[in-house]
Amino acid sequence: MSSCYEFVSNPKTNWMDARAKCVERGGHLLALETQEEMDFIAQCPELSGYRIWWTAGNDRDNEGVWEWADVDRPFSSIPGRWYDGEPNDAEGGEHCAHVYLDEGGTLNDRSCNEAGGFICEFELTD
């Protein structure tokens, strides 16, 4: 399955609003499901200038059990998906995943209430 991506940087928004906006557009927040997709996103010039780009990754329903919001596929394990030491729930309320720009598109857990850009994914059918 192929996908198309929309990078939304303005206005910055929290994870819940980002999720709703992607669904309104007919897609979902980015679900990094393969190494190839992770590599592609990490190289996108649209990512420069922002530290937080929300993805569909979250453990809001069950601490430590990560899933993709609005995607009916498991949060599979890609080696190196998470930045070193993540997810760590460092401040006791980090339940949403964003692309960590400084480290090749790896993920970091963060408070869902923080404002950032977001990436909508639209799945293309053959």
Automatic annotation (TrEMBL):
Gene3D superfamilies: Mannose-Binding Protein A, subunit A (3.10.100.10). Residues 1-121 form the C-type lectin domain. This is C-type lectin domain-containing protein. InterPro entries: C-type_lectin-like, C-type_lectin-like/link_sf, C-type_lectin/snaclec_domain, C-type_lectin_CS, CTDL_fold. Keywords: Disulfide bond. The keyword Disulfide bond applies. Signal peptide: none annotated.
